[in-house]
Amino acid sequence: MSRKTWTAVDDYIVASLFEPDPVLDAVLAANRDHSLPAIDVSAAQGKLLSLLVRIGGARKVLEIGTLGGYSTIWMARGLPADGKIVTLELDPHHAKVARSNFERTDVSGKVDLRVGPALQSLAALSDENAGPFDLIFIDADKPNSPNYLDWAMRLSRSGTVIVCDNVIRDGDVVNEDGRDANVEGARAAFSFIGGDRRLDGTAIQTVGAKGYDGFAIAIVD
Hints:
alpha/beta
């Protein structure tokens, strides 16, 4: 199997199961036009996140790592009318593009975008008693994954779903001797989830337009 095949299958999934979506197409085009890195989740992955929000009946979602807001919009679409998603972004340029993208949609009123270092924003959310969140999606700088998971636990409740993206790293996650900081972050995420008895988790390996990677998914007991 090759990435060409994986991408073709992703395209088939979208063509078979999704309605045409000019809004999300425009969001991705805006991200490209403003030179954001092409690291958004795929459409199929975005729909999975939206479905997880709906399946869990989430009303409050926390996203760590906004980029241009593509995944934010997917999750916001899964929320009920009175739902809210707080999304955290470090880069002011990325945040500016994301705000513009949110304005293209009918979910902009559900989005609370906060700009700055995520660990500072998470501490502020805790001080505000903003939690608990029903679903937390972690898709930011990978070396900080255990720190984000620690904050996720503080901002969660029994039943909160926590999703970490990019935990397989082309299979390099099994390399104990690697020195890649992103791989080390993925391994630290596995160690955190596996070592915390309050969490019941698994991981899903994914192939597709985004290559070979995967999600770790856990629920707080």
